[in-house]
Every structure is written in C-alpha cells, then in structure tokens.
Write a structure and sequence with these properties.
With about 180 residues, the protein is of the alpha/beta class. Helix content is about 30%, strand content about 20%.
Amino acid sequence: KPTPAPAPTPPAPAPTSPSTVSLKGRPTNLPANYQLGVDVSHHNAKPDWAGFVKVGVRFSYIKLSEGVGTPDAKAKENAQNAVSKNIKIGYYHFCRPDTRNGGTVVSDATAEANEALNLMKALPKSNLALVMDLEDQASWDTPLKPADYMLWIKTFAAIIQTGMNAGPIIYSRKEYLDRKLPKTH
C-alpha cells in the first residue's frame, strides 16, 4: 500500500520581536533600531494614545502651526497626551512660503519661524527637531520663484537653528522640491 505524501508544512509565524510591527493586519519587517512614530493634528479628532503605545509608537510629531496666525488648536492637548504616555514629541510647522508677512521673502520666513518658536514656548518641551512641512495642497502652493523659495527655506532654517540649537528637518516630496527649487538644490 503506498504511503501518502506528507501534508505541506504551514509557513512559520512571523517573528514577534520588536523589529516586527503589525498595523491593521499588515506586518512590516523593520530594522532592529527602527522606531515607530505618528503625526497628529487637529484633523485627528481623538488620537488613540494608548493604542499607539500598544503597537510600539515611540515618538509623535504634532502639528504646531501653519503660516502665521494659524496655530493648531489641538497642539497642546496632543503634546500633553503624548508626554503622559512617555512618547517623545516634536512639532511640525506647515510652511506657507510667500511674501504676505512683511512684504519680502526674508520677512515672511522670519515671521513664520518666530511664530513657531513662540508657540513652542507655551507647549511641552520638544524632544525632537522641528519639522518644516513643505508641500502644496489643492487650495495653495508657493508663488515664489525657485531662488526665492530657496532663500525662504534657508532663512526659516537659520532662525530655527538659532532658536532651538538644532536645525529643522525638511518634510516634503522629491518631485515637489525638484520642481520648486533651483536645479542645483
């Protein structure tokens, strides 16, 4: 009588080490030193901070402001909630590079950087560098020419560097920056 072939061996379960994170059923294999983070703003009605901790979130970037005169209404609440869960925090500023504040590229960048620095004084202390969010959206994009846009970024970054003793991080898309900045950027 022939012996039946053995049943196929099921695949081994995914490792459960800290370098594997499962988000909504989608495992992502990450390097061992990877740290998971989230970004939140007033657009997130009620972030699940306990859930973030449960899936291994170690840091959060919190929207601070946009342009001048538009602080994020939930920045303080989000920062306090993150800190209460031992999540490191950093802030991001959605940049509006133009000349509305003071009439020049430099005065506008200066006004936005100073606004970000001043708003942070009333919030829990950041553990991370400020992020400059540089992107377009359906209702707005920078009207600046490439050299002026570069000057705006350099001005903003220099003021943040001085105010925080750390340069900012730029968050954007390569395609966008390639289109908006001088070819030599």
